[in-house]
C-alpha cells in the first residue's frame, strides 16, 4: 500500500508531479484556464474588490505564498487569515469581498466555521479542497478540487503542493479576466506552471544529497528558516514540516526581521536555512545569512541553479531548477519536505503519525 516506500509521507512526496499534473489538467486546456465548470463567471471576477484567504496550518501557508501571486498578477488586495483568528475578529467584509478557504480534508473545524461566518455575512466564498463531498466542499459557493488523491501521512505534502498550484491558476485567471495580462503573457505563465511537475521530478531524483545533509543535522536543537516574500512563506512550510515530524524546534522568520530580536538565539552551530529563490531579494537575504554566520550559525542555502556564488556564504547548498518567481516556491518547498522527512527518519521517529497530531482537526 505504500508503493514500495517505507512511509506514506515519502510515497506522497513522490506523487507530487502526478498530483499536480492532474490538478492542472482539471482546470487548463489549450493554454486557457476554464472556471466555467464552477460557474465563476467573468462578471463576478471583475467585481471582486478584495480577497480574504482563510485556512489553518499548511493550508494557511499556501495562502501566505499565494497572496504575493494574487496581488502582483491581478492587482486585487489580499489578506491572509488564520481561521481560528478570523472568526473572532469581526472581520470587515463587503459585498465584493471574495473569501477563499483552503483545506485538504474539508473538515477542519475552524476553517468550516470561518466559511459559515463569511456566508452568513452574505459574502461570496470559494473553497480549494481535496476531499470530495466534505463539509467545506458542500457549503462553499464555488469549489475547486485539488486532485491529490487520498493523503494518509499526517504531514501534508502533495495536497499542499496542489493547493498552491490552484491558487496560481486562480490568480492568473483573475488577472486575465480583469485585463491585467496580455494573451501572450497569460499563455506563457500557464506554460511555466505546466513545467512544475517535471522540475519537481528533477529535485526528487537528487534526494540522496538531502538525505546525507539530514544525517548531519539530525541532532540540531533549533533550526531557523529565513527568507523574504514568497521565500518567507515557503520557509513557514519548511519549518512546520521540520518541527511536526522531527520534534526539533524550528522557526520561520522574515529575514529582515531577525535582527529585531530573534537573532539573539543564534549561537555556535545553530542551523540557519536561507531560502533565496526570489531573484530581487537575493542580496538582502544573503546579507542576513552573513549576519547569522558571524554569530556562529551553520548555513544551508536553497537557491536556483546558476546562483553558484551562494557557495561563498553557505556551508551546504541545494539548488532547484530556475522558474518564474511567482511559481518557484512550488520547487523550493520540495527539498524542505525531504529534509523534514529524512531528519525524522534519522531520529527514528514515527514519520507518518507524529505524536499529539491528527490528520483532520475537527475540534476548535
Ligand atoms: C501540516 C498539516 C496541517 C494542516 C491543517 C489544515 O502538515 O497537515 O497543518 O494543513 O491542519 O488541515 P486541512 O487542510 O485539512 O484543513
What does it look like?
- Its EC number is 2.6.1.16.
- This is Glutamine--fructose-6-phosphate aminotransferase [isomerizing].
- Catalyzes the first step in hexosamine metabolism, converting fructose-6P into glucosamine-6P using glutamine as a nitrogen source.
- It catalyses: D-fructose 6-phosphate + L-glutamine = D-glucosamine 6-phosphate + L-glutamate.
- The chain is α/β, with parallel strands linked by helices and 364 residues long.
- It is 45% helix and 17% strand.
- The longest helix has 20 residues.
- The mean pLDDT is 97.
- The structure holds fructose -6-phosphate (F6R).
- The site of fructose -6-phosphate has 15 residues, from helix 4 and helix 12.
- Fructose -6-phosphate binds next to helix 4 and helix 12.
Helix-strand blueprint:
Blueprint: H1 8-14, H2 16-27, E1 28-29, E2 32-33, H3 42-47, E3 50-55, H4 57-74, E4 78-82, H5 83-86, E5 97-103, H6 109-120, E6 124-129, H7 135-139, E7 142-145, H8 158-177, H9 183-194, H10 196-205, H11 207-217, E8 222-227, H12 230-246, E9 249-254, E10 271-275, H13 282-293, E11 298-304, E12 316-320, H14 329-346
Parallel strand pairs: 3-4, 3-5, 5-6, 6-7, 8-9, 8-10, 10-11, 11-12
Antiparallel strand pairs: 1-2
Helix pairs in contact: 2-8, 2-10, 4-8, 4-12, 8-9, 10-14, 11-14, 12-14
Function: Catalyzes the first step in hexosamine metabolism, converting fructose-6P into glucosamine-6P using glutamine as a nitrogen source.
Enzyme class: transferase
GO cellular component, one term: cytosol
Amino acid at each position: 500500500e505504500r508503493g514500495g516506500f517505507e512511509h506514506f509521507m515519502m510515497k506522497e512526496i513522490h506523487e507530487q508531479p502526478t498530483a499536480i499534473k492532474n490538478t492542472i489538467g482539471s482546470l487548463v486546456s489549450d493554454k486557457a484556464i476554464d472556471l466555467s465548470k464552477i460557474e465563476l463567471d467573468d462578471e463576478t471576477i471583475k467585481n471582486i474588490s478584495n480577497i480574504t484567504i482563510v485556512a489553518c496550518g499548511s493550508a494557511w501557508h499556501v495562502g501566505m505564498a499565494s497572496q504575493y501571486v494574487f496581488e502582483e498578477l491581478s492587482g486585487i488586495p489580499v489578506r491572509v487569515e488564520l481561521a481560528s483568528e478570523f472568526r473572532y475578529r469581526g472581520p470587515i467584509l463587503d459585498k465584493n469581498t471574495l473569501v477563499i478557504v483552503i483545506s485538504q480534508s474539508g473538515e477542519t473545524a475552524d476553517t468550516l466555521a470561518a466559511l459559515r461566518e463569511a456566508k452568513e455575512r452574505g459574502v461570496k466564498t470559494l473553497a480549494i479542497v481535496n476531499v470530495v463531498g466534505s463539509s467545506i466542499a458542500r457549503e462553499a459557493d464555488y469549489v475547486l478540487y485539488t486532485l491529490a488523491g487520498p493523503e494518509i501521512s499526517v504531514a501534508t505534502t502533495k495536497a499542499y503542493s496542489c493547493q498552491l498550484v490552484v491558487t496560481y491558476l486562480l490568480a492568473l485567471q483573475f488577472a486575465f479576466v480583469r485585463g491585467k495580462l496580455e494573451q501572450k503573457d497569460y499563455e506563457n505563465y500557464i506554460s511555466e506552471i505546466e513545467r512544475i511537475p517535471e522540475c519537481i521530478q528533477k529535485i526528487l531524483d537528487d534526494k540522496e544529497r538531502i538525505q546525507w545533509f539530514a544525517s548531519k543535522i539530525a541532532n540540531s536543537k533549533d533550526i531557523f528558516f529565513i527568507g523574504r516574500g514568497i521565500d518567507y512563506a515557503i520557509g513557514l512550510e519548511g519549518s512546520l514540516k521540520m518541527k511536526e515530524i522531527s520534534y526539533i524546534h524550528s522557526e520561520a522568520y522574515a529575514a529582515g526581521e531577525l535582527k529585531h530580536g530573534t537573532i539573539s538565539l543564534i549561537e555556535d552551530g545553530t542551523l540557519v536555512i536561507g531560502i533565496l529563490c526570489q531573484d530581487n531579494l537575493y542580496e538582502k537575504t544573503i546579507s542576513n545569512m552573513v549576519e547569522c554566520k558571524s554569530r556562529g550559525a551553520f548555513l544551508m542555502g536553497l537557491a536556483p541553479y546558476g546562483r553558484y556564488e551562494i557557495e561563498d556564504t553557505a556551508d551546504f547548498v541545494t539548488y532547484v531548477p530556475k522558474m518564474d518567481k511567482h511559481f518557484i516556491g512550488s520547487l523550493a518547498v520540495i527539498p524542505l519536505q525531504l529534509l523534514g522527512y529524512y531528519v525524522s527518519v534519522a531520529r527514528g521517529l514515527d514519520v507518518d503519525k507524529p505524536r499529539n497530531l491528527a490528520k483532520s482537526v475537527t475540534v476548535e
